[in-house]
Amino acid sequence: MLTEDAEPGWAGIWTLTHAASRAALRLADALPLVDTLDVIYAAADLREAQDKLEWAHPALPARCAAVDLGPLESDEGFTRGRVVLGQLTTAALNRAADLFDADLTIADVLTLADVEAALRRARDKILGAGP
Asked: CA-to-CA distance for 37 and 23, rounded, in angstroms?
């Protein structure tokens, strides 16, 4: 499973965030717009996190696994899609938390704080804990 197999550190955060961003857009595309606004906004937060990672570490997209989970199967449903998105964002947040124990530059700490905030916003929207 991707949540367990993604690399640790920056690379794992990027891979999980990329996969979650793609999955959120596919989930939003599977349902009427009115039912998926929170997922669309979560996808924007995930893209923000990914942009911040790429700005701080430009080599990430070239060296990390760019996983796309593919379209949502009709028998999985919207609820299952949200669960998968929640798992991906939680795994990325766990890797971010692990990085705080590493020897980071001030720039890395600031990037990590921004990425973590965007991931938390996305997870809250996906799981229904936020606006």
From this structure: 14
CA 14 – CA 24 distance, rounded (Å): 15
Helix (H, G, I), strand (E, B) or coil at 116: helix
Query: How far is Cα 49 from Cα 51, in angstroms, rounded to an integer?
Result: 5
Task: Express each pLDDT in 18-28 by its tens digit.
Answer: 999 999 998 88
Tell me which residue of 2, 36, 39 sits closest to 21, measured CA to CA. 39
CA angle (118 as vertex; 92, 64 as ends), nearest 5: 40
Residues 25 and 112: beta-carbon distance below 8 Å? no
Q: Are 60 and 54 in contact (CB under 8 A)?
A: yes
Tell me the residue ranges of DSSP E strands in 37-102: none
The pTM score is 0.89
Name the nearest CA neighbour of 15 among 7, 25, 4. 7
